[in-house]
Each structure stands twice: as structure tokens, then as C-alpha cells.
Amino acid sequence: MIMNTVILHRPDSTNPGDYYSNPSLYFDLGNVKVLDIKDPRSIDKIKDNSNVIIGGGGLVRHRKFDSHIIEAVNQKYRFNSLVLWGAGHNYRPKEGTEDWHDPDYLDKFDAVGIRDFYQERQHQWVPCASCMHPIFDKSFDITLNTVYYVHQMNKKIRGGNLEGVTYQYNNIDFESAIEFLGSSRKIITDSYHGAYWGLLLGKDVTVVSWSTKFDYFKHPVHKLYKYNLHKIKPSNIYRVLDEYRQANINFYKEVKLAIKL
Q1: What pLDDT digit, counting tens, does each position of 88-130 carry?
Q2: Secondary structure class of 137 (helix, strand, coil)
Q3: For residue 64, is pLDDT > 50?
Q4: Cα distances (Å, whole numbers) of residue 195 to 84, 137, 150, 151
């Protein structure tokens, strides 16, 4: 019997980080249907007895998506299984708000793979599944010292603040994004996946942080809070691709048990 699996995430073709975080692009998960977590009726569209996989992407504690995760948890009785795969925090905390750090609902999933690395869930760390893409096995000619990979929603940068530097917005296609990042020695970015893919490519990465999603990389990078050419410092360069892929391969074995594949 072929199991029906729903992938619930942001299948946004204008944002390759969101689109390519779908684990079913890299692993056999049965008969797959993809639903957009941005759709307010997304949970109601899931048929009974489906396997539901939420992720990847910055969905946890996101002001638009967190309520949908909670709704899925509350309707778990309808599903064959409920899994979180490669999703992570994406919140702008303010003093006096609810505890955003480690939501209790994570304990109600049948399998948890969270892309953030922090004390309470180190044993459940599973980075974004896009690391499985074969493009990361390619070698790239380095033709640029520093590149800027800018989130398409960053309106301040659209005003021309990056005049005179080499940059791309993150709404280019996936292959072009990796080619662009791969051509550099240093990456400056306010895109989560710009930083993540830079780590996979072994680059010197600096993030311009605006959300909790930048706080829990397993391998930390240098952080700024606005684009400032004068405060860029050397960061750490890692070789993480094999480790990140193995974490996903190991989690896939856990998921197969959960969804009875």
C-alpha cells in the first residue's frame, strides 16, 4: 500500500530557499502532495490518515505560520503521523511576549528534526534537506572576493545601499544562486539559506540578522544587524556538507518508521 504524504511548507518558486527545503525532493516519502502553509485552509485540506511532514523553512513561531503548526498538532488524531523536518525558528522576540524559544508542541510530533541547534533539542537537530541536492558536489571557480545575497523583501537595500558591490536578490533560480555563492570567498547575507548554503560551500559567511532564525546555526557565523561594510570581520570556515547530509539520512530512517513506509 502506497502511503499518502502531505508536505506542508512554503513552495514559493520565487524563493529557492523555501522551495528546495522540501524533503520529498531528495527522499522517497510515498505518494506526495505539497500544500502551502501560507494558505489559511491548508490544514483542512489534508485528508484523514495522511502522513503530514511540516518543513522545511523558517516556520516555527513565525507570526503567520505558527498557528497552522498548532492547528496541525491539534488535529493530529486525524493523521497517520506528524513529522517536523528541517523547519526552524523565525521570530522577532520582544520583551514580555510568550516563550518563543522551545515550544511545547514539538513534543507532540511523532518525529522531530529541527534545523536549529540548541541545548534542549541538540539530539533532534536536522538541518535543511536542501543539503542533499547534488549541486553541492560541484566545484566552482572563485572569481569574486565578496558577494552580497540579499533577501528580496529587504526594501532598505532596494534603495541602492549596495551600490558598488556585487549582489543578487534571493529570488533568482536555485542553480544561479548556488553558482553566485560558489563564485565567492566571502558571503554577506540577510537570507537564511544564503548563509546555510554558504556554509555548505565552505565559505566565509556573515549574516545580517533580523530574526531568531539566525541564532542557532550549529556552526556559528559572524553576525551584524545591518549592512555595514566597515564592520565585516573574518568568520569561521567549515566543512559541514557530509555531516549535514548524514543527519538527514539518519532522520529519514526515523521518518520511515513513523510513517510506516
Answers
A1: 999 876 644 456 688 999 999 999 999 999 999 999 999 999 9
A2: helix
A3: yes
A4: 22, 18, 11, 11
**d(C-alpha 229, C-alpha 231), whole Å:** 6
Nearest to 90 by CA among 186, 17, 173: 17
**Can you say whether the dihedral through the CA atoms of 167, 169, 174, 175 is positive or negative?**
negative
Sign of the torsion angle spanned by Cα atoms 119, 122, 128, 133: positive
Q: Determine the pLDDT at residue 225.
A: 82
Burial class of residue 73, CB neighbours in 10 A (0-12, 13-18, 19+) = buried
How far is CA 234 from each of CA 161, 186, 204, 215, 254, rounded to the nearest angstrom? 22, 9, 7, 18, 38
Contact 5, 180 (CB under 8 A): no
pTM listed for this prediction? 0.93
CA angle 2, 16, 213 (to 5 degrees): 95
Q: In terms of C-beta distances under 8 Å and separation of at least 24 residues, what long-range contacts does 76-81 make, across chains too?
A: 76/108, 78/46, 78/48, 78/49, 79/46, 79/48, 79/49, 79/50, 79/51, 79/52, 80/3, 80/49, 80/50, 80/51, 80/259, 80/260, 81/51, 81/52, 81/110, 81/111, 81/258, 81/259, 81/260
C-alpha cell at 93: 522576540
Structure confidence by residue, pLDDT tens digits, 151-189: 887 755 544 566 678 989 999 999 999 999 999 999 999
